[in-house]
Amino acid sequence: MEETPAEVYERREIVRAEGIRKTFSLSRKQRLIEKSKEKKKVALDGLSFTAYEGEIYGLLGPNGAGKTTMLRILATLIRPDAGDAYVAGHSVLKEADKVRASIGFLTSELKLEDFFTPSYLFDFFGKLHGMEGAALARRKEELFAKFGIDRFAEVKVGDLSTGMKQKASIAVSIIHDPSVIIFDEPTNGLDVLTAKTVTDFLQEAKAQGKSILLSTHIFSLVEKLCDRVGVIIGGRMAAEGTLAEVSGGKPLEDAFFDIYKRTVTGV
Amino acid sequence: MKNVLAVLKKEFARFFRDKRLVVGTLILPGLLIFVLYTVLGSVIYSPAESYTVLAVRPSAAFSALLDESSFTVTEIGEEEIGEAKKEVLGGSADLLAVFPENFDDLLSEGGFAPVGQAPNVELWYDSSSVSSSSAYSAAAAALDALEEGVSNRFDVNISAGGDLVSAAEAEASYFAMLLPFLILTFLYSGCMGIAPESIAGEKERGTIATLLVTPIKRSELVIGKILSLSALSALSAVGSFIGTFLALPRLAGGSIGDALSAYSVGEYFALFAVMISAVLIIVSLISMLSAYAKSVKEAASLCVPLMIVVMLIGISTMFFTTSAPAVFLIPVYNCVQVMAEIFSLRFSALHLLIALASNLVYIALLVWALTKMFKSEKVVFNR
Q: What number of CA atoms fall less than 13 Å from residue A161's CA on the CB side?
């Protein structure tokens, strides 16, 4: 069967991970905590997956499965021990600068400096993305209005509420209007109203044709947002497909526990 | 380059918009140094107090040599010696002098007796009391002068002789010992006040990762940080230096202004160049320690051993100076040596060039190493 050009376009790869392996060395203290004698902990064990342009791809998995590690590799903050990943056609190993220029990355570990105001930081990060003058000012106005930061634009980040901080972080992460948005647990620790702002934003970004990769352990978020899902357990891809394929007619939560049982016990 | 400037501007904004940082690193150290040195100076050069000397069989020649305005000599009897010692210990008197019989006659007779067989003057004092010690020193000096007058075989530096260096040069060599140490210490402490906060602090608070996911190159970030921190450390050092400049005359008794006018414009340029290279090296070193540390606290404690090393190098000019060109390849030490040469009016362009060129290489290496560290996840994420 021949694919029509439209289908080819729809299936264009935007993020591809190929056999990513990542181990961390454990300190003596960490070994005690983990009750393990191994000096290395395998965080990712040959993980491969593909996200296509214009879709929301969800990495679903329990804590410690390796979701954050995978996203950090995609953001070029850390390097894989083996394998390579491509974002918008650029290798995270060889073209880290270009990868960073094409993604908007958000995780709870990336903080904004408490001392500065959202307005100042927006300008600063805008400049690092090569934006200037009127274009930067327009973008600031647009994003600040969208997230309701305008009233707090001149308040120091340290004095903002958790929700407002998260909104400011989102605004800063997408200053350069990236084609790929990578969010790590975007709604964690947020109240329902702020969480809704975030999910609304993600849906809107998808409508604009952005490609979105997010990690979460919240089933409802996946069901609400994601087109395709990859279930990561113990650093490996346990199941991957469209939301319907992965859930197999059951609620996602039940389907996940089936997959989990199958993977962990091998039954 | 644009990114370097952006980082530079942000670091400056972080510093100058924070009143506490500005006061704490630019103004306070200079002010404290000024107050401390002024107080120390006024203690050291305080006018002589008045001393009470108890004397058994007081000598007129001896009393005449003592400054009348500060010494009061009271005659006591031999039977009162025990009581007088107690008074010296108790602080109500400063010195007890017991002269042999006919002391003034001995002086006019002259003559010579071997040590141990000559008539003895007893001076009793309390070394734990400052005023008693001073009184003892003055009395001992007066007695020495008397003895010399009696048995004069030769004079020293009375008809001719003296210091071959001019007064300016003598003052210059004094500053040559002191200033490199002070400058290095000020540069180091200025940097220690800012760099750990700017690098380990950003790491600790997770704000550096936000920077690292932008397209900025790690090397641009490192250069921006080092340049801004160097400028701020230099500013802080200038603050401390002004404090010293104003207070040193009170401490040292000389005028630092007179000494400083002894140097040429070229020498000041050389001094400036050497200080800039010193500050860049120090900032790079502290930045590396800060990048390695998990927190600002850890960074600060890691800086202490390095500070001791730098201070020891700073005082090295007080003990030895050298002109072997190879020495000017040693980082930090070469800065101290070149500064000492400038201050003691022995400036050598060759030494300056060797020092600057080698420092440039070290700075490049340190920037390269720091860039490597910023690329390493072990460094950026070990919290």
A: 11
Owner of token pair 């997770």: B206
Q: Where are the domains of chain A?
A: 12-265
Residue B94 contacts residue B68 (beta carbons within 8 Å):
no
CATH topology of domain A12-265: Rossmann fold (3.40.50)
Distance from CA of A166 to the nearest CA of B (A): 13
| pTM for this prediction | 0.78
Query: Helix axis angle, B167-205 relative to B28-44, nearest 10°?
Result: 140
**Is the Cβ of A22 closer than 8 Å to some Cβ of chain B?**
no
Query: What is the reported pLDDT for B1?
Result: 81
Measured distance CA(A112)–CA(A9) in Å, rounded: 37
For A115, nearest residue in chain B (alpha carbons): B14
Helix (H) or strand (E) holding A256: helix A252-265
Please indicate whether, in this complex, the C-beta atoms of B213 and A75 are within 8 angstroms of each other: yes
The residues in A 220-259 lying below 8 A from B, measured between CB atoms, are: none
Which distant-in-sequence residues (6+ apart) come within 8 Å of B68 by Cβ?
none
Q: What is the pLDDT of residues B254-278, one digit of tens each?
A: 555 666 666 788 888 898 899 899 9
Q: In which residue ranges of chain B is CATH 3.40.190 found?
A: 51-150
Give every residue of chain B whose pLDDT is below 50, as ranges: none
> Which among A78, A98, A172 has the least Cβ separation from residue B377?
A78
Model confidence at A8, pLDDT cuts 50, 70, 90, reads very low
CB within 8 Å: A124 and B210: no
Q: How confident is the model at residue A10 (pLDDT cuts 50, 70, 90)?
A: low
Nearest residue in A to B218, CA atom: A97
pLDDT tens digits along A104-146: 999 888 889 999 999 999 999 999 999 988 999 999 999 999 9
**What would the pLDDT profile of A194-252 be if each residue is shown by its tens digit?**
889 889 999 999 999 999 999 998 899 999 999 999 999 989 999 999 988 988 888 88
Mutate to test the interface with B, among A71, A76, A128 (most CBs of B within 10 A): A128
Contacts of A79 in chain B (CB under 8 A): 377
So what's the ipTM on this one?
Answer: 0.85
> Which of B18, B206, B214 comes nearest A128 by C-beta?
B214
Q: Which fold has domain B51-150?
A: D-Maltodextrin-Binding Protein; domain 2 (3.40.190)
Nearest Cα to Cα of residue A218 among A239, A241, A189, A246: A189
Q: Are strands A180-184 and A103-106 parallel, antiparallel or unpaired?
A: parallel
Q: Does A76 touch chain B (CB under 8 A)?
A: yes
